[in-house]
Amino acid sequence: MHKLHVIPALQDNYIWLLENSAQQAIIVDPGEAKPVINYIKQYQITPIAILLTHHHMDHIGGVLELQQIYPDISVFGPSEIPLPIQYISNSQHHLFIADFQFNIMQVPGHTLGHLVYYCDPYLFCGDTLFSAGCGRIFEGTPQQMLNSLNKFKQLSGNTLVCAGHEYTKGNLKFAQTMLPEDIKISEYLNLIANKTITLPSILAKELQINLFLRCDNKKLQNKFNFNNELDLFTFFRSQKDIF
Q1: How many angstroms separate the Cα of 231 from the Cα of each of 154, 181, 238?
Q2: Scanning 53, 219, 225, 237, which has its CA 20 to 30 A from the CA of 60?
Q3: CATH number for the segment(s) 1-103+111-119
């Protein structure tokens, strides 16, 4: 059995740790090193690998310091990352570390090389999927981002969404401005109102409250006068960018 840990970092980032029964841990997206080092010492965990989703500094900023302190640690990520790590090729779909098995997905959009790592039931999705939202499209196209998000719909509904940032309340408030009549969005915002950490989220819930996962819904398309999924997605993302 694996055990999930979440470490708040920087302004609103999350660093994830996945621990096995031997107290070995995989670290995902360490934007800074100190909170990770402190956490590892406190809980007497042995870090064996780091997984990186994309090249933004708030996801990789702690890597070099962690490599210095734990010289045996393996670091994996996309080739867009300008660090001495093991690059994952586009043809590599699995990663085996100790008793951890990760499925790797290519999800361009937020950045062109963005990867996500799925170790059932945990989805480490970086800045592609957030609770009730999705990442900004900095390098890719709306079509690429939509295709990437749609890959997650193939996963089990009980998948745990381990995203890179705590954006849930802001995303839900945006969703409310788009769909003020949507009861599930309002109910979920009330449910998490007093929570400081709203992740991991559950994919089945995201399929109800996340506008960016619902763009294939014909009723939604009609409501906003679009006749396809991509145009509605592009509209939602453009409105969220200025919200």
Answers
A1: 22, 22, 11
A2: 237
A3: 3.60.15.10
